[in-house]
Design goal:
CATH class: Alpha Beta
Number of strands: 6
Distance between the termini: 17 Å
Number of domains: 1
Structural class: alpha+beta
Order of helices and strands: EHEEHEEE
CATH topology: Alpha-Beta Plaits
Number of helices: 2
Helix content: 10-25%
CATH architecture: 2-Layer Sandwich
Radius of gyration: 17 Å
Largest sheet: 4 strands, antiparallel
Strand content: 35-45%
């Protein structure tokens, strides 16, 4: 058995949930926040048999695509507000970070 831990952009979580449910995969969602852009993410925890890992990863790839977005990024040691006007920077957002972990034991009550 494997635990697939996936961090995706908040905008993609509804599509991801629908894709998993339509293929009868159970999951748990946990709200999280990214460290770089400090925007909302969603972390999915999906427990599957080894034979279903590739299918779940394919669903993640189909539903979570990267896209460009302009953001204002302040340096960590920025001067007080009003003294510096940040310029928008184009960054890639979205996509998914996927970890596949071995599960030593699984119990359902």
């Amino acid at each position: 058995m494997k635990l697939i831990l996936t961090v995706i952009h908040d905008r993609d979580h509804d599509k991801m949930a629908e894709a998993l449910l339509s293929h009868n995969f159970r999951f748990t969602k946990v709200a999280s926040t990214g460290g770089f852009l400090r925007e909302g993410n969603m972390t999915f925890l999906v427990g599957v048999d080894d034979s279903h890992v590739d299918q779940v990863i394919a669903l993640i790839g189909q539903t979570c695509k990267t896209r460009e977005q302009f953001v204002n990024i302040l340096p960590p040691d920025a001067a007080p507000l009003g003294t510096m006007v940040p310029s928008p920077v184009k960054v890639l957002v979205g996509g998914a970070i996927v970890f596949v972990l071995d599960v030593e034991r699984f119990e359902r009550y």
